[in-house]
Amino acid sequence: MNLEHFLKSDGPSWLEVKGSDADIVMSTRIRLARNLVGYRFPLSFDEQEAKQIDQVVTQALLNRKNGDHFFSHFTIKEMPALQRQVLVEKHLISPLLAKKEKSASVVISNDESISVMVNEEDHLRIQCLSPGFQLYETYELANQLDRYLEKHIPYAFEESFGYLTSCPTNVGTGLRASVMVHLPALTMSKQMKAIIQTLTRLGMVVRGIYGEGSENLGNIYQISNQITLGKSEEEILNDLQNVVEQIIQNERNARQLIMQQAPIALEDRIQRSLGTLRYARIMTSEEAASCLSNVRLGIDLDIIKDVPLSILNECMILIQQGFVQQYAGTTLQATERDLFRAKLLREKLNAKTKNSVEKGEEKYDV
Amino acid sequence: MICEHCKTNQATVTVTQIINGQKSERHYCEVCAAQFHPFNVDFQNEEQFPLAQLVSNWFGLQIWKSETNEKQQSNTQTTTSCPGCGFTFRQFLNEGKLGCPKCYETFSSKLPQVLEKIQSGTKHNGKVPGSSKNNHLLLKKQIETTREQLQLAIVEERFEDAAKLRDEIKEMERKLEVGGVDTP
Ligand SMILES: [Zn+2]
Ligand SMILES: [Zn+2]
Questions:
Q1: Phi/psi at A207 (5° precision)
Q2: Which residue in chain B has the smallest CA separation from A151?
Q3: Less Cβ crowding at N or C end of chain A, within 10 Å?
């Protein structure tokens, strides 16, 4: 599979709309950190070690015959910066991997549900992404690949500390389970601060999906376990499952309350956002994220009926700067990006309406 | 109850830790808990947890700040450096990361003190390579949800459904016992 396959703007499989909680939980991610015995961690290893690890791991993955997944392998150093950025925005690689100067690579399954980063902070980071709220299913996917790899790769493991990792925050299970949730009503009703404090005490982490300094851009939060040592995988997943179920319930209650107390104000906000997305000429990523969040809520509450949720999910990924530049076909200044972002959103959101409305609407140019 | 750290504010946060199977509870006020709890520090920075910062808050200030201790430290520094990568414990505290898998063995006497602060224990309790432990979480979860459905079916007197669900549970339990759905 060539790189173009993974760079195209179509939503990856984990952005599909799936599951009973798809109105709130957008996707589930499982990450397992593993290292090879006998090599220094990426923080301190030399190029020769890096190369050997890269070879051992990628060989093992590409030779896998019995799995349902076909893997493609990409070397980070050989990838242009913009393409690396797009893979970051698709959550297929981390910002840290994108910046690596020693031998590092990523092995991605065709449907993008599995990506294995080699020589990121640890020798291996197995990552699995699924649409909706599927902690156990996604863990099973990662676990099966892990069990295959452990037969071919001698893992650094010790009875008392578990899987040995570069950072002691990952040691033990090496498992980080994350759920991406859309919480507009809890955010609007200013309950998130208290919720984040509670989650922190329960050993969970909450952060934004668009990276640093944007914790709740678009009202999307990622909730993950922080603890990896002293608890089993099962306990970690059960704890997260329970916490997220409670948050879903809280968000539903908050939505009902807002609907009862301020239906007109809510509908006004939602419809204005859709109007902005369909007609604006300049759109910053912040404004786009906030409008998309409102429209998503409008769809969930059945206030907006002519926009599919899948398009919204896709737009949330597409508004990031790497994608906007890929769409424009060139690198852009910030102000130019805002023009192209607006154009991209107009095309995405008006094209879909055109199909549902009998006669085509007028054409839109930049 | 008064906060164990500042000894002035009312303690409202209980931090439970399990160390070597021993459960211990600590009580802090909101302010101290927020400052101490390592999970807050992690908020913005994806999985880049500034352990060094935590260590200087929790650990470092008491141990490394005074000059006498500084000297003691430089002595231990020369005595214990990791044979796998040359890291010293001091280097680990500065970086927040270890140099190689062998470091865990090298610093096995000092690491638990750090792990206590950031983890829920100091002993691994999960999956082991090559064993089937924790290998069927999905199956276990499915059994659990099917049991709930069975309960509901019985309450609602849908006995045909209940019989079907009971057989499904039996089948899944059998799979779990023989090693389950894991593919080679
Ligand atoms: Zn205090
Ligand atoms: Zn070492």
A1: -150, 170
A2: B130
A3: C
